[in-house]
Amino acid sequence: MIRIGLALIVTAALTVALAYTALGSEQTDGDTAPIFGIKIPAGYRDWRLISVAHEEGSLNDLRAILGNDIAIKAFREGTYPFPDGTIIARLAWDYVPLAESAQAFGQLQSFVAGPPKNGVQFMVKDSKKYASTGGWGFAHFNDGKPADETVHKTCFACHEVAKARDFVFNRYAP
Amino acid sequence: MIRIGLALIVTAALTVALAYTALGSEQTDGDTAPIFGIKIPAGYRDWRLISVAHEEGSLNDLRAILGNDIAIKAFREGTYPFPDGTIIARLAWDYVPLAESAQAFGQLQSFVAGPPKNGVQFMVKDSKKYASTGGWGFAHFNDGKPADETVHKTCFACHEVAKARDFVFNRYAP
Questions:
Q1: Which 8-state DSSP code applies to residue A171?
Q2: What is the ipTM of this complex?
Q3: Is the CB of A106 inside 8 Å of chain B's CB atoms?
Q4: In Å, how far are A62, A80, B51, B111, B173 from B93, measured between CA atoms?
Q5: Please, which residues 41-60 of chain A have a Cβ atom closer than 8 Å to chain B?
Q6: Which of A48, A121, A139, B14 has the smallest number of CB atoms closer than 10 Å to its CB?
Q7: Whole-angstrom Cα distance, residue B172 to residue B108?
Q8: What is the pLDDT of residue B27?
């Protein structure tokens, strides 16, 4: 009975561990984006941080780049090209001044994330399925709805300038 | 035996769940910062994202605000004041132009996180232990080493301007 008990403990532990992994990286939500057939990965807002960015100009936003477990491992270990199953999420928010900044620093110098802006984007690595676009599928969603085909045709052309880093602009911020 | 087996499964599942929680939020690393007696929480780089920010001026950095599970739950539910056990981490990196930005956008407009800069800071909520500073303990580390007492004396005075949000500058970025 002790052996059966131990086997059950191991099984239960594995089940919990696998359930946790699946929760973050395999379920999907809502409508499918055109061309690459990608849905919003469920739970992506809980993924770990890869890096942060600020776009000046007309985009004028603050960004966070998050990754699923495969992505985080690859970034940390410097694995290029990224392995199949990698998903990178790009979130963005309005670039807004922090009201208390001038009081805290003597001048307005702090800018923080405001409401969501410029949509949410995903890169999904599947070297066979997306062979013609460097192994990456791309998806852009505005307010949870996929952008149209025209938008999705621009993704790879832009990312090609980062070909030396497997078409990924961002580096891991330690 | 089935009942014992089920009890073991539940016990094992709870053990795994508790071990996972403890790993992220309760262990600490290295030297203790002065005044508030805070060490670097182990695994904080794996915490979930609260928000992002950019400091202009002499700080000139890009920031990420991460939180332990208690912090994330409180931010998402809008709980003020934050419950005891909340830990908020402020990471920062140099504000550097993305080399490929001009090529991708036709002008240099993308700025990304470079090497770590301006240290790592933590706010730890313990309403009894830190009663004289709004229930918050503060800690600042440069390259893993705590800053001196003089630095730590400035924390609460600055955060007081955000008293209406329980002394926390950042809001949750959805």
A1: P
A2: 0.85
A3: no
A4: 14, 23, 14, 11, 19
A5: 45-46, 48-49, 51-57, 59
A6: B14
A7: 29
A8: 65
